[in-house]
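Lab notebook, page 48
Experiment: co-folding of the full assembly
Goal: obtain a model of how the components sit together before planning crosslinking
Operator: M.T.
Materials (sequences as entered):
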Amino acid sequence: MRVSRAHPLWLAYVLHRLSGLGLALFLPLHFWVLSYALNDAARLDAFLTLTDMPVVKAAEFGLVFLLAVHFFGGLRLLALEWLPWSAPQKTWAAAAVAGSFLVSTTFLLQAI
Amino acid sequence: MPGQDQGQDHLTVTVMRGGSDAPQRPEAFQVPAYDNQTVLDVVSWIQQNTDPTLTYRFACRVGMCGSCAMMVNGVPRWTCRTHVNKVLRDGALEVGPLRNLPVIKDLAADMDPFFDKWVAAEGRHHPTRSRDDDIAPIDPAGDDRQAASAGIECINCSICYSACDTVAGNPDYLGPAALQRAWTLFNDAKDDSRDAILDAVSGKGGCHSCHSMGSCTTYCPNDLDPLSAIAGLKRATVKRAFGGRK
Amino acid sequence: MTEFRLYMAQRLSALVMAPFVLVHIGVMIYAIQGGLTAAEILGRTQGSVFWFAFYGLFVVAVSIHASIGLRTILGEWAGLRGGARDAVSALIGVGLFAMGATAVWAVTA
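Observation: model returned without errors.
Model output:
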């Protein structure tokens, strides 16, 4: 029988797990490319020019998205586990953090 | 009305059959449809009118004993208080034994692992006094008592255990019901073994295996909140590790 | 190691990384303006004690965090149990740390 369980907290759990898995799989590649800087800066540049390709740009967006999702999902988990707050308090706190992040990032993007 | 064959007033109900000695397979039954009937009514109708060998479990029929839980259209539910009309999917009803437990036969799951873990989580009373002492006065409005009272209406139906994907992936995990029981005892002024409780829920498969997916709290038929109880245990173990006492 | 210690290591490494992640995202947004070049990255990081400490600690924390997280996934989704699971995740942790340390050394030394 197909199990039915797509409620918000379960989706948050799956998102956190998949984003964490994705980041863990990406890390070795990330480290490997950067380590070229040690003795072959030209080769690092060759990799970095790849970042102009739209498909690589999309993948970069995906990675930053995974990182942000895992970051906020993790803060949510820490608050849920370690702060004895009521459910509405946690919702407001999460909304406040997300809102201030949005505002400050927008500012950052405008400023640079 | 959904769920009826044209003009026949019948429901098609798929029941999972089989168990420990026979492979599981779905079997379809035609059951008369009524405006008001529970999933347990439907299962009982099949057993009484079509196939007397259908095995299932129930006792009180009023949501108190916790024995009639089954998977209904992919969700664990107490069948005696689940109206068919509210859970039909595309007019169909699929009933199976509880997930995450061995199947004895048909719709009867083997509850042994569920209760063994209840004991493994120190889900038993550790008295502070003997029968010769006076009864300890308890303030019903106190924070500890409120935390304990929030979880004591558990009827051991195993719906949370069956709903939890952490149980499905980790056979050692004690599960929401046993951990919630540990949390109520931890907050009970009449319980003498808080450290033993925290030790029991800190081992392999203890409260730290929980990923807060919250299916326990979402599907608990008594509106209990094992998710928050387990978070309470995590907090208590962290506090203890930093030298804090409750 | 007990489940509780792994839980604490997982949560504490997460807390350590929280500010690092914010700075990392900020630097990424800043650094990609006008394209990425090796010279630009190395100009910022080479010989900097600050970035060495920043990325060094980041690598230590992420190796701990990711190997514990993958250990959970290996158990729940890949059915790996007992010593085999612990050995594989320890290996992943050591491997991530070695690769990360090489990368940090490459861009800051």
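Interpretation: The beta strands of chain B are 10-17, 25-32, 69-72, 75-78, 93-96, 103-105, 108-109.
Next step: discuss with group before ordering constructs.
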